Amino acid sequence: MTDDGTADTPAAMGPRLRTAREQRGATLTDVSRATGISLSTLSRIETGRRKPTLEVLLRLAKAYGSSLDELAGIAPVPEGGPRIPVPQRAGGDKVVLPLTRYVGGLHAHKHVLPAVDAPPARPRQVSHDGYEWLCVLYGRLWLALGEQDLVLSAGEVAEFDTRTAHGVANAGPGGPVEYLIMFGPQGERLRSRTPALGRGAR
Q1: DSSP letter string over 22-58?
Q2: What are the backbone dihedrals phi and psi of residue 51, each rounded to the nearest 5 degrees, phi first?
Q3: Could you tell me the pLDDT band of residue 77, with boundaries at 50, 70 and 90?
Q4: Most CB contacts within 10 A, which of 4, 52, 67, 127?
Q5: What's the start-to-end Cα distance of the chain, in Å?
């Protein structure tokens, strides 16, 4: 029998499941409550010490708004072109639109935070392996990065090691906030191939 690379897929899903959870701003406790899977089981699966069963994967896929193929990193591209990504609801009415299939390496999401009527509390912070590049498209985004508090407007960019505690919120009050995220779960970064040119350069 040939090795098609799927034999190790269940054990290798731990990092993907952790990334899927963290990209939605959910804690292990949140997922445990939503799925009925124990904290210890979730922790062992994410660290690769336990292979997830089909029942567990089905519960996680439903909680994360993903397919089993996407969680396994083997989602095929249908004939005629890539799939149209399906918006996913995260906590607090945030909408996450995957822009790439998760197959490891850099992947992209568009996030939309709803409008708020009053200034929010400081964003809840999380930390995890990886590197993130964030670009605001519309509105004003509050980025709590470690002990720093930054308010980014449309066109402004931030990049940081996600092992630094971080969190975001609509800096409001006002309209919604839209922003792009490029995330490298293993620390992958964007690489510029062109030199910065002055405004007067031709």
Answers
A1: HHTT--HHHHHHHH---HHHHHHHHTTSSPPPHHHHH
A2: -85, 130
A3: very low
A4: 52
A5: 59
Query: In the block, which residue shows the tokens 């992209």?
Result: 108
Q: What does the alpha-carbon distance between residue 30 and residue 19 come to, in Å, rounded to a whole number?
A: 14
> Which structure tokens are listed for 139?
């509105």
Count of alpha carbons within 13 Å of 116, Cβ hemisphere only? 19
- Answer for the pair 97, 146: CB distance below 8 angstroms, yes or no: no
Element (H, E) at 72: helix 68-72
Cα Rg of the chain (Å, integer): 18
Token pair 């995890």 in the structure block, residue: 128
Q: Report the percentage of the chain scoring pLDDT > 70.
A: 76
Q: Are 165 and 138 in contact (CB under 8 A)?
A: no
What pairs with residue 159 in β-bridges?
133
- According to the per-residue pLDDT averaged within each range, which of 88-92, 139-143, 173-177 is highest? 139-143
pLDDT per residue as tens digits for the range 40-76: 999 888 887 888 888 888 888 878 777 776 776 655 4
Q: Is the pTM of this model over 0.90?
A: no
